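Quick start: read one record
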Amino acid sequence: MTTAQKLPGISCICMTYARPHMLEEALHSFLLQDYPGPKELIVLNDYAPQILEFGHPDVCVINLPYRFRTVGEKMTAAVGLAQYDLICVWDDDDIYLPHRLSFSANRVSDQFFKPDRAWYWANGEIFGPLYNVFHVGSCYPRSLFDLISGYKAMGNGYDWEFETDLRKAAPERMEIDETPMQDLYYVYRWDGTQSYHMSGSGGWGGGQNETEGWVQARVKMGEIPSGCIPLNPHWRQDYRQMALDAQNPETLELNGLLTVGIWAGDSPAESLDLVRSIRQRYSDISILVVGGENVVPELAAIANLRHVTTSIDTGMGCGRNLLLKECATEYLLVADPNYRLTEATDLRAMLFAAARYRLEIVGCRVIDCLPDGRQFAVDECWSFSAEKGVLHHRRQSRGKRGPYTLYDRVGDFFLCRVSPVRKSGWDEVFHAEDFGAFFLRSQKARLGVGLCAEAVVERRIIGGRNEETADKGSIDWQHFQQTYGFVNVTYADE
């Protein structure tokens, strides 16, 4: 018996509906797999006007004359057709790198397995890796499928419900792995595919009717063919090389992934020097300025910059929440006007740290620049002692490199993932400094926080370096104590 014959057989289940141009890339992904053991790809097509054709001993294309009621039932039917007992989910609109099956087979015995993150493709570029459910990257034995009687008869959410049922029935057999970046194999595709995305339409349990409407509209426009369609497996891009390039932060494309958000208060003119330093370092990155009722002509003339005006009494907490609300990218860099980007301000390294170390908030090293020309390299961070009811603010020097679980002047300059931070946000009661409250709200939301020592930013200090006094005087301590349960704040240099 050969080594290949000793390896477990793997059945990949692929649901498809009216998009053969995308299926061809998923099919090519399967044919590129380096797994030497037995394998098969089951393509289940229930778009009756199309008869898909492809001849290959490891690929079984099944064309049905009617549509399944739900995608959950379609998934269950595909597993029932599988000849092997190891199941890999294989969506028709995504990409799978050649080592997927060999990596998964090496990890799975009797448990459910998937990486905790995946590459993200949009408009021809690969970003990330990013975190989500990503059930499509999973591999599991048929015994687990049988244990919970398969997928529920529903549309959107069928994957979430499947994994939730598994956690309840066999929590000890769930493995969601912190897979090293170089081993990630799943490329999740979103914008720019010229196709539908069911999870982006309809509510929980739905989405099929919306998909049907999208398809019928394209049929009327002549964009979706019918009849016998021979499949031509191929990749439109070299996704393997793109994933390798994405592991190098120097190749990360910032535009479309990151927005710089500036809370300018009632004086947007003070933000002009910061914006200029941004443009000098990153020529095309999106910039969002919030605050002030008057648009500064120089700001208005800068390309790819949007200015959102607010009333003069809008406070810091409200203003920064508005930054989160208006941001349309995955990541937001929150920056106060007294900061300046330099050649050492490596935003790609900060994004890289966020993705690699599962961080929702990433700070960087700060250089304080005094009017007399002196400079101080400091990292300021918040910590707290719940049993003593004391919130500590301390100034520290950090000689090490890499991410740390701390906040580096979190209210002034940091990178964040918009979606989770938007849920915790800033306390809008505070019209001035909200550092401590933001820290505690983020802790309560269990956000991952760290510092990227490879990135450095300069902060302009006016009138000395005694910011602690200003910080203490600007917070409503009665509200702070009632809301967050802390009786006082201590400040110390270390």
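The longest strand covers residues 449-460.
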